[in-house]
Amino acid sequence: MARRKLVYEGKAKILYEGPEPGTLVQYFKDDATAFNAEKKATIDGKGVLNNRLSEFFMNGLQRIGVPTHFIRRLNMREQLIRQVEIIPLEVIVRNFAAGSMAKRLGMEEGTPLPRPIVEFSYKDDALGDPLVPEEYIIAFGWATQQDLDDIVALALRVNDFMAGVMHGVGIKLVDFKIEIGRVWDNDFMRLIVADEISPDSCRLWDIETGRKLDKDVFRRDLGDLADAYTEVATRLGVMPKNATNITKPTLIN
């Protein structure tokens, strides 16, 4: 049987043509990148962890009525997803000042924000994913005002769910980013959560110690990234701690 057709390869994932029209197979790589891929490494088991964690969060969102592209997990590194038209924006939700926001505004990292703040950045690695105001988004036709209102509502629902789940296992949800896709049911367009939700796309700090359990471990050379992600997965009961000690599987044809 012929090997699956590659549709797209990004820094952390590969998309292959799915078994049915309108579907894709999303494969999670072990590659870790930071600073727009200026820093790179291969972290054994990272793809397995992100696949399982993204499955956990997407399923949880669907249970509370937040639509996502996730259909089912296929194996340790792959999941079947619905094909969507990705809106070219990263949707960032911040609960505490950290990262670029703290630097941009001269705030101490970890400062609680008065309310969750939703920001948008334009998805373009060559430009460094610059922040963009709503006026740009509407003027350039990336999304309508109604789309933006719906995206903010979706992002805040994701935030409520994620913050609650993380708090329950002693983890502070500092911030996260998601992507939103468009799907059509006949002539009716819907917006759904797409891409992934994992420690790659979140800032997660231990509530008691402030220890970082996200990609900042890699960005800032704070220890072993796989250990940090395994800690998150273990606390959430997603997978046993030794489950990352596997060899990279061959893609199923």
Write a structural description:
With 253 residues, the chain is an alpha+beta fold. The chain folds into 2 domains: 99 residues, 2-Layer Sandwich (Phosphorylase Kinase, domain 1), CATH 3.30.200; 122 residues, ATP-grasp fold, B domain (D-amino Acid Aminotransferase, Chain A, domain 1, 2-Layer Sandwich). 28% of the residues lie in helices and 32% in strands. The protein has 6 helices and 13 strands. Strands 8, 9, 10, 11, 12 and 13 form a 6-stranded antiparallel sheet that branches. Strands 1-2-3-7-6 form a 5-stranded antiparallel sheet. A hairpin with a 4-residue loop joins β4 and β5. The longest helix has 24 residues. The radius of gyration is 18 Å and the shape is globular. The C terminus is likely disordered.
Give the CATH architecture of the largest domain: 2-Layer Sandwich
The rough form would be described as globular
How many helical elements? 6
What fraction, in percent, of the residue positions are helical? 25-40%
Number-wise, the strands total: 13
- CATH superfamily name of the largest domain? ATP-grasp fold, B domain
Instruction: Provide the β-strand percentage band.
Output: 25-35%
Structural class: alpha+beta
The H/E string reads EEEEEHEEEEHEHHEEEHH
Catalytic activity: 5-amino-1-(5-phospho-D-ribosyl)imidazole-4-carboxylate + L-aspartate + ATP = (2S)-2-[5-amino-1-(5-phospho-beta-D-ribosyl)imidazole-4-carboxamido]succinate + ADP + phosphate + 2 H(+)
Domain SAICAR synthetase/ADE2 N-terminal: 7-235
Family: Belongs to the SAICAR synthetase family.
Pathway: Purine metabolism; IMP biosynthesis via de novo pathway; 5-amino-1-(5-phospho-D-ribosyl)imidazole-4-carboxamide from 5-amino-1-(5-phospho-D-ribosyl)imidazole-4-carboxylate: step 1/2
